[in-house]
Design a protein that fits this description.
398 residues; 5-stranded antiparallel beta sheet; 15 helices; single chain; 20% strand; binds zinc ion; 13 strands; alpha/beta; globular
Length: 398
């Protein structure tokens, strides 16, 4: 038995007026997902437990079978795993944003939590300098991508109150500085980093080019390494993962999945959809399971572009799922599970925690839901998996 798990990130949605009250999933022409749902099991699953942010980290944890209320220890440690940073049990990972803070309105204002979407080149130079100047036996700075970096605090605290910088755009930062255990160290690091950044040649170059300057670091999203058992330990299955997104890659790494590089995958609508399908089939030569993550369905939701989102769903159906289905028969019996990690409605341009439609298809099964794959049909089945993290156990059960 082979298993194909497909996550259309943020794919589910709300009814859209310009689509005559249909959702993008209902509007999109998706013969492959519809066929699998008709001949398979269809329902709704709650991937975001009550009280949790509707993030890709939380939703993907549920999809991979890890109860977020037990295993979710913050965003940064998952990203650290993706960056290949080995953490010990006493290490605490902090997300370290490079940000632009300006003096105005009578204080320091968070102008840009991305430092003008700083380039990898400029950012890496800066973060290496921070490590050189501020790194010691307690603190370690690791360069990541663009404005997203990681600081490891050996033996650090986790209960400190920190604030995501994207939540305080255009606000005074004063009331949002780290508070509680460890606050003095964290504030001292920001002050010291500010002085280094003010003198840094990468910032001088950015200024000369008319780009935003990385004035500060912002430390948040801290946590310890989640002690998750691998999928192999839990279900006896080996697996590969295809994704262009770091946080999904990090969770896959913790789950023991082999990250499979596919040329030309971007996390956007220009991604190499067919390549994802082709490389997934190749991965099944050596693995029981392949997990394919597609991000464009989420990005187009964030853009609020309903036509692009419909197109992204159709591309996922035709080019990813179609490619997989065209070649999977050679492996014998197989199962396919399709679901998003959360909704990203085009009307709100941000994530929503509503239950998401899932389908599970088994090539051996002779009866099915008789329904197409979308939110309305999934709700009409009356099946709601309240703890979405239990779904993968049913999918992988023999
Ligand atoms: Zn997501």
């Amino acid at each position: 038995m082979k298993y194909v798990l497909i996550q259309g990130d943020g794919m589910s949605d709300f009814p859209v007026e310009s689509l005559g009250g249909l959702t993008p999933l209902e509007k999109a022409h998706t013969p492959n997902m519809d066929r699998l749902a008709r001949a398979g099991r269809l329902g709704l699953a709650r991937t975001i437990p009550d009280g949790y942010p509707a993030g890709t980290d939380v939703g993907t944890m549920s999809i991979l079978g890890y109860d977020p209320s037990r295993y979710h220890t913050g965003r940064s440690p998952i990203e650290a795993a993706s960056m290949g940073i080995e953490m010990s049990d006493t290490d605490v990972a902090f997300r370290c944003n490079l940000v632009t803070i300006e003096n105005r309105d009578g204080g320091e204002v968070m102008c840009d939590f991305t430092a003008g979407h700083i380039s990898n080149e400029d950012a890496e130079e800066i973060v290496r300098e921070l490590q050189h100047e501020l790194g010691d036996e307690r603190f370690e700075f690791h360069p990541g991508v663009s404005y997203r970096h990681c600081m490891i605090w050996h033996g650090g605290p986790i209960a400190t109150r920190t604030t995501p910088p994207h939540d305080i755009t255009d606000q005074l930062v004063d009331g949002f500085l780290p508070a509680g255990e460890g606050q003095d160290d964290l504030r001292r690091l920001r002050e010291a980093a500010r002085e280094i950044l003010a003198e840094h040649p990468a910032n001088a170059r950015r200024e000369a080019r008319g780009e935003k300057i990385a004035t500060d670091i912002w430390l948040w999203g801290q946590g310890k390494r989640p002690a998750v058992p691998t999928l192999h330990a839990r279900f006896g299955k080996t697996g590969g993962l295809i994704t262009a997104v770091d946080v999904v890659g990090g969770l896959g790494r913790l789950a023991g999945l082999e990250r499979i590089d596919v040329p030309g995958i971007t996390g956007f609508i220009d991604t190499n959809y067919v390549g994802k399908g082709e490389y997934a089939l190749r991965a099944l030569d050596r693995h029981d399971l392949v997990f394919i993550h597609v991000e464009s369905t989420d990005e187009t939701g964030h853009m609020g572009d309903v036509e692009l989102k419909v197109k992204a769903i159709e591309d996922l159906d035709e080019k990813v799922i179609g490619t997989v289905l065209a070649g999977i028969d050679r492996f014998g019996d197989y199962r396919v599970m399709v679901l998003p990690d959360h909704a990203t409605p085009v009307s709100t341009k941000t994530h929503a925690a509503d239950p998401v439609p899932f389908l599970i298809y088994d090539s051996r099964s002779s009866c099915g839901s008789g329904r197409a794959y979308n939110e309305r049909e999934a709700a009409a089945t009356g099946e709601l998996i309240d703890e979405g993290h239990l779904l993968i156990g049913q999918f992988l059960a023999s």
